[in-house]
Amino acid sequence: MKKDYLNSKNYPSLKQFPPINKKIVFVSGVFNVLHPGHLRLLDFASTLGDFLIVGVLGKNLVPENTIPEKERISIILELKKVDIAIILMESPEEYINKLKPDIVVKGKEHENQFNPEEKILKKNSGKLIFSSGETKSTFFESFNESKSKFNHNSILKSENFQKKHDFNSKSLIKVLDDFEKIRVLVIGDTIIDEYVDCDPVGISQEDPTIVVRPNESKFFLGGASIVAAHAKSLGANVEYITILGNDDLAKFYSKKIKKTGLKFKSYIDFDRPTTHKKRFRAHGHTLLRVHNYIQQPISNEIKNKILKDVNHKITSTDLIVFSDFNYGMLSQELVNEIIYLANKNKVLIVADSQSSSQIGDISRFIGSKLVTPTEREARIAIKDFSSGLVTVAEKLMVKAGAEYVFITLGEEGVLIHQKTKNKNDWRNDMLPAFNKSPIDPAGAGDALLITSSLALASGSNIWKAAYLGSIAAACQVGRLGNLPLTKKELFQEINK
């Protein structure tokens, strides 16, 4: 289709295009000289839907000295993010009335002006969105300008899943409101995440090495601390137990986490640094990750202090969250003793054990209400690298004694596996990834884990819990950096 251009007189409506049941975005303009502003605007527009149509104003709609329409549209046709380019023989608003797109994007300069297409779009349940298409020299613009708010238009939820499992937005809001009743204890490894924005310079002449120039660094709470911060920001009553090194990063962490209002207890381990993960990024891509950590068990002295602390808090706790990054804090002995205390006091247990640069075992958190491994983590735990996903989930459920298993699959979504005695109940199901234009995958699993766990602790069934967790993950990956989700953000997305 993109090898040739179309004429609006001959192709007036979407019925004549192959993409049916797609979210259509429309942009129009002269495009006499294609400049970076155009490219940024079109890039932005492409993130809002599934199919981008660009209308190039025909010769009857532009001044006589304008470049010929065939030359202007040929440039547009070369852009990968443009699906169809059309020469407009009538006004954009006339064509919009025929096309009936879901979204029309215009430059920010038109926002306070009269826009005739707005009335047409409202009639057809469409939206008019304005954007400057401007970018800054660093990828931190989202922090500086919008406090890392994401674009809700990039999230497409599964309405069929709601119908299948008999719940609606109103019931999800009720679950979310109940988060404030939940008392949570998060236990796990703290990580300081650092993002270094770089300008690519080129390739070294001495050896085949990429050369970059650093511009700016940003630091974020990571590891188990962001899980705790998520829970606090979502309304729960949260306490957090962790370990830190005896270094400047530990001091930075203490100041940073105090700003969240989170109740925490950190134990200093003089035999390790505060775990630090550094990402070098350029043009939206991570070039290199550098991890500074020591993977060794904590001392018996620290273990006993943590256990004493947990024993003190257990009677006022509804939910214990193990957020394990396998750096040595959660030794098997400590885990077993905490699980014993939790079972004795009828406290729910959920767990996540990450195996990225290190190897963990999610099955060691015996009797958990929920475990949320990636496919790789699940297969490592049961030592099965060939069986189908459902079989893997079942084996892990049996080995871990878990009631529910979520196997996270990145951009493919999440597999939900349930232990049930009733053959008429759904035993497993699948949710797709809701965010179709993710910006940063960091923290998706954390958001899924804590939101789903809070839902279960609130009395929700597994299907509503998984759905809320998937919404939270979609919101999280729609912005740069692992920042605490707010109840307001989830409310907004549920009610969309």
Q: Can you characterise this structure?
A:
- The structure is a single chain.
- Helix content is 33%, strand content 24%.
- It is α/β, with parallel strands linked by helices and 496 residues long.
- The chain folds into two domains: 130 residues, Rossmann fold; 311 residues, UDP-N-acetylmuramoyl-L-alanine:D-glutamate ligase.
- Strands 11-10-7-14-15-16-17-18-19 form a nine-stranded mixed beta sheet, sandwiched between helices. A six-stranded parallel beta sheet has the order 1-4-3-2-5-6, sandwiched between helices.
- Strand 8 and strand 9 form a beta hairpin.
- Helix 14 runs antiparallel to helix 15.
- The longest helix has 16 residues.
- About 3% of the residues have low confidence.
